[in-house]
Amino acid sequence: MKKLFIPLLLILSLPVFSQVSVGAPITETNRWTFGGGIGLGFGSNSSFSLQAAPRVGYMVTNDLEAGVIGSISWQTSDFYRSTMFGVGPFVNYYFARSFYLGGNFQHYFIDYKDKYYGYKDNRQESALYLGGGYMQRIGGNSFMQLGLMYNVLYKERSSIFSSGLVPNIGFVIGL
Q1: Please, which residues bridge with residue 40 across strands?
Q2: What span, in angstroms and rounded, lies between the C-alpha atoms of 99 and 136?
Q3: Pairing of strands 64-76, 80-95
Q4: pLDDT for the residue 175
């Protein structure tokens, strides 16, 4: 089920991004927001990672946005391979049209394989990120968000994550 849901989510999110006009002004009848972030990483031991995090929100008020965010991450190296899928709600409060405070809850499904020892692990983990950041207008009703979040559910010994602190860069259309 999970293997079908991830590609389906990506396929359905592509038309959403392609139909949004970057320079269109927001109107009272259009309170929907779209955006997300993507990531690409390279490292030692032939490590490579690719991430995508699409989001859809609704402006409840002029300063309060709520919605759903998803994430998918694929990582590989000479020693391991992992796939991670997450989904959950988010809320952002915007002030002075340049800053935001936010939180999002993600429930992750992780598939991990150690290439050297043959160890496999399928597990789940939840994260509650709280934080905020700065927004830079990039045109019309489109913004780039630069922020810092902290996973308040992070436990050093049992988490799959290396830290509870997460820097983020994303884009939002429709604010």
Answers
A1: 50
A2: 9
A3: antiparallel
A4: 67
